[in-house]
Amino acid sequence: MEKEEKWVPVYSSGDQYIVELAKRMLSDNNIESVIVNQQDSVFHHAHGTVELHVREADEKKALTLIKEFSS
């Protein structure tokens, strides 16, 4: 039985397109990531955040790349 991999959040924003750009940058650096959308858009205005998660093993490298991406 394989051990289930743990995914951890490394970036979040209220703007989904910025998270999409961060996801693309991680992908370009061979880091798989997933977007977790926690926004509520009931009234045509999104409230909440969109998070970017990576495998725990990639967390350190991803955080370094995200820091560069955000500056």
Topology:
Blueprint: E1 7-13, H1 16-28, E2 33-37, E3 50-55, H2 59-70
Antiparallel strand pairs: 1-3, 2-3
Could you characterize the architecture of this molecule?
The chain is an alpha+beta fold. The chain has one domain: UreE, C-terminal domain (Alpha-Beta Plaits), CATH 3.30.70.790. The chain is built from two helices and three strands; from the N terminus they run βαββα. It has a three-stranded antiparallel sheet, covered by helices on one side. The N and C termini lie far apart (42 Å).
Biggest sheet descriptor = 3 strands, antiparallel
Radius of gyration: 13 Å
What is the assembly state of the chains in this entry? single chain
Strand order, largest beta sheet: 1-3-2
* Total count of domains: 1
**How does the helix and strand content classify structurally?**
alpha+beta
Q: Helix segment count?
A: 2
CATH architecture: 2-Layer Sandwich
The total count of strands amounts to 3
For this structure, what is the CATH class?
Answer: Alpha Beta
Low-confidence segments, given as residue ranges, are: none
Overall average pLDDT: 87
Tell me the name of the CATH homologous superfamily: UreE, C-terminal domain
Helix and strand element order: EHEEH
Percent in helix: 25-40%
Strand content: 25-35%
Shape: globular
The CATH topology comes to Alpha-Beta Plaits
Euclidean distance between termini CA atoms: 42 Å
